[in-house]
């Protein structure tokens, strides 16, 4: 049962072949049996989930017509607030923080009858690409427990890949949905900036963060996107764009679709096995009638640098509120108010968080603003313009999601720069604010490789159309890890 | 540009963080290697380029001046490390 | 040596909106601690700010009233600093693009009308409140997120008196527009000053000192007088003036160095990434311009031209919108402008000041004042009695006619009765009559006083004078 997709489960529920309570129990048992090895969950709310499931079952029994996601177990990355439960951001700082309110996406899922089973593990405050910076425990890759699941939404990716839940939500600031989706062999979508409300998502880098779904296939992705998209008056940056039914992009012909392959995304640093699988994927698109052409996005070579300045600067300010006064960790001994701040923050944050706060504080400090922050914003303009220009000639842009497959635990944790490089293909998308999806493209040495498709602003539909066409022509999305 | 231990101490103070001497050395090295990496940005000619505040320009998210309910004080203070008589409590602050 | 004093003021005014600037919590003053808070104004993780449209309306209104240009495209900014009353440890304010700039206020100085420039007006959020106790501080976030405008003047004031006049005019204008309560006691108007001195004739600015903690206009003037003197004396002693922040100590009547902050200010301003551009078009600005009331300067000129009031009366009457409104209502009810003005500037303002009350606290209606004046005009009561009636009316808010009737204060104009009274007084005071006859005209005043006293103030003074002259001549 745990290998099934959301749309399969939905149909079973509608045909009353299984109940939501049964599904929830299966999910809880699955978590119980594998999560001490996998480490995907920080908290599990079994009783609450069963209550929600019972509620859905009652409605099904009474013949009520229910949304697609009703009764299906899911999980939220632990940086999204759910009223009355902890939001830890995998940090000692928020170990005991209980949220008094629901995030926008949490409300949406509840309205859709979702059974939220728990909160997933992540890199501390979403800063990391391997899930090793979590204060609580590491998440492991369900394909190889000695390897990382990617990050920062590693828990959400691993939970879906291993069938603990049928779908989950993650957040993506520089690749934090797509990179772990690629490494765990699932579908991960980062919507257009503003498509999904950030209200209640603990901010890492406000101008880059976006929530999106992890699913087993593209149809599921469209279903979840339907549920979480749309304007939220509580988020000034949420876009007032009409939400379509994304499932209408499934089962569509892609003949004549123009696909661009940027040379900069196939250069130095890409591992040979990844390149080979992506080239095979390109052939699949061609065989479906798409036109594939080489393009160039030279400014994207600066995206990672721009990203580290912008993301760290915004983070240095966003994380200032964690000071031990109103909530969160407070150091046990201190001499005065300033000392509360300094000691609580120094003890409450891990090294990677401190590193980024330091970089961001430096980049914004007197005398350096123009050279770093302002410069990065200007290059952001150039990167945006370059993508806009490219979309005059192509419908989607294709690349690997990550230069390598999942690496070994501990392999890069002591070398920040080499860790940062694993986001090199995902970061330009956040800088531009465009949507991108990572879909399974096959295994290399038993490890999943992700294919990234990038679309123009609010063209999630085009991405889903291309991704679904690829899926129909291949079997990669049916592969499940053996955990 | 490269940073010294003194710079790291200044930035740490601004960010309300403190480090051991050993950590200061480590953070100085790491910051320097990241800064050296991002130095590549200076290659790009950005004269006359407008900074992009946000992914694309958006205008006027405004709310009407209508009261919505506040949280119960119990909820507000639930997560407070120290509180008294409905207040958050901190060691004496000098203005 | 002669010095020139250079002063610039930064004024924070709380806007009178119903809700906070970035969330829907009430701005009501005086609620129980930490009851007007939500995830947004508490800075809870994940919360996001959404700008209150009324705040923009009010700031533009203030900007137009202060002759500013309105910035068509602005963006909010974060100002980063750690302080317990600041929930996010940054303040959402405006930096490079204030909503209004380049305005001015006119003040009446001895040298004539003077323009004091306004550099900028920007919108921002207020902080919470730290309550300091013996060994701890207690934080209340009710005020966190209350909308403010900060009005930054140019360094155009040349004396503490000018600074005070600027503040009075600014307060009047803000009050007229209705965007703020402008109550310094409740903290809805706050003022910090920058002051420096330079030798007369020099073009360079001296080192400026910031002065804080002035809680009234009088305090601003006194603090600046003290500070100017302190700087001049230091200069003459050859001491260097240090750039610093000083605090006005009201009790000791001096400014004292504030404990210097632990590090230099490095606020790391950057565009607030949780918010988007604010675009204000001409239509929006014009609709606000149309809603502007008549402002103090225009009203003052109208009082001079339309009512023929002296400059002095007009200035005082228009210094507060409510005072001017009260005056005009009296005139609309048929009162004669100068007479009404005399009453307001005399009895009314004096009584209000004695009781530390404001014009809006007055119990009687403007029409009652007009009636009171007409009772005197008609000879029903004397001017002296009118003052007594006013006191009653001020206490109770009752109709003056009713007061006069109930207390039997109607003026006596019956010549026979007055003549009888006068002859009685003259009989009782032969010495005064003799003095008058001997040419001591002063004695006349004494006799009139005695007559009025005998009539309990009710005798009509004109008739008393007329008959007294007749009767004295007879003797």
TrEMBL record, chain A:
Assigned protein family: Belongs to the amidase family. GatA subfamily.
Assembly notes: Heterotrimer of A, B and C subunits.
PANTHER family from the UniProt entry: GLUTAMYL-TRNA(GLN) AMIDOTRANSFERASE SUBUNIT A, TRANSAMIDASE
This protein's GO CC annotations: glutamyl-tRNA(Gln) amidotransferase complex
Top EC class for this record: ligase
Protein name according to UniProt: Glutamyl-tRNA(Gln) amidotransferase subunit A
Catalytic activity field: L-glutamyl-tRNA(Gln) + L-glutamine + ATP + H2O = L-glutaminyl-tRNA(Gln) + L-glutamate + ADP + phosphate + H(+)
Database matches in PROSITE patterns: AMIDASES
One record GO biological process: translation
Automatic annotation (TrEMBL), chain B:
Keyword Ligase attached: yes
Keywords, ordered alphabetically: ATP-binding, Ligase, Nucleotide-binding, Protein biosynthesis, Transferase
UniProt function note: Allows the formation of correctly charged Asn-tRNA(Asn) or Gln-tRNA(Gln) through the transamidation of misacylated Asp-tRNA(Asn) or Glu-tRNA(Gln) in organisms which lack either or both of asparaginyl-tRNA or glutaminyl-tRNA synthetases. The reaction takes place in the presence of glutamine and ATP through an activated phospho-Asp-tRNA(Asn) or phospho-Glu-tRNA(Gln).
Organism placement in taxonomy: Bacteria, Bacillati, Bacillota, Clostridia, Eubacteriales
Superkingdom field: Bacteria
GO molecular function, one term: ATP binding
Enzyme class: ligase
Family per similarity comment: Belongs to the GatC family.
Protein name: Aspartyl/glutamyl-tRNA(Asn/Gln) amidotransferase subunit C
Catalytic activity: L-glutamyl-tRNA(Gln) + L-glutamine + ATP + H2O = L-glutaminyl-tRNA(Gln) + L-glutamate + ADP + phosphate + H(+); L-aspartyl-tRNA(Asn) + L-glutamine + ATP + H2O = L-asparaginyl-tRNA(Asn) + L-glutamate + ADP + phosphate + 2 H(+)
GO BP, sorted A to Z: glutaminyl-tRNAGln biosynthesis via transamidation; regulation of translational fidelity; translation
Organism: Fonticella tunisiensis
InterPro entries linked to this entry: Asp/Glu-ADT_sf_sub_c (IPR036113), GatC (IPR003837)
Description of how the protein assembles with itself and partners: Heterotrimer of A, B and C subunits.
Keyword ATP-binding attached: yes
EC number(s) on file: 6.3.5.-
UniProtKB/TrEMBL annotation, chain C:
Transmembrane regions: none
Lineage: superkingdom: Bacteria
Keywords in alphabetical order: ATP-binding, Ligase, Nucleotide-binding, Protein biosynthesis, Transferase
Matches recorded under PROSITE patterns: GATB
EC number: 6.3.5.-
Reactions accelerated catalytically: L-aspartyl-tRNA(Asn) + L-glutamine + ATP + H2O = L-asparaginyl-tRNA(Asn) + L-glutamate + ADP + phosphate + 2 H(+); L-glutamyl-tRNA(Gln) + L-glutamine + ATP + H2O = L-glutaminyl-tRNA(Gln) + L-glutamate + ADP + phosphate + H(+)
Keyword ATP-binding among UniProt keywords: yes
Keyword Transferase: yes
Domain Asn/Gln amidotransferase: 325-472
InterPro entries: Asn/Gln-tRNA_amidoTrfase_suB/E, Asn/Gln-tRNA_Trfase_suB/E_cat, Asn/Gln_amidotransferase, Asn/Gln_tRNA_amidoTrase-B-like, GatB, GatB_C_1, GatB_Yqey_C_2, Gln-tRNA_amidoTrfase_suB_CS
A GO term for molecular function: asparaginyl-tRNA synthase (glutamine-hydrolyzing) activity
A GO biological process held by the record: translation
UniProt feature coiled coil, ranges: none
Functional description taken from the UniProt entry: Allows the formation of correctly charged Asn-tRNA(Asn) or Gln-tRNA(Gln) through the transamidation of misacylated Asp-tRNA(Asn) or Glu-tRNA(Gln) in organisms which lack either or both of asparaginyl-tRNA or glutaminyl-tRNA synthetases. The reaction takes place in the presence of glutamine and ATP through an activated phospho-Asp-tRNA(Asn) or phospho-Glu-tRNA(Gln).
Family to which the UniProt record says this protein belongs: Belongs to the GatB/GatE family. GatB subfamily.
Subunit structure, interactors included: Heterotrimer of A, B and C subunits.
NCBIfam families: gatB, PRK05477.1-2, PRK05477.1-4, PRK05477.1-5
Record protein name field: Aspartyl/glutamyl-tRNA(Asn/Gln) amidotransferase subunit B
Organism expressing this protein natively: Fonticella tunisiensis
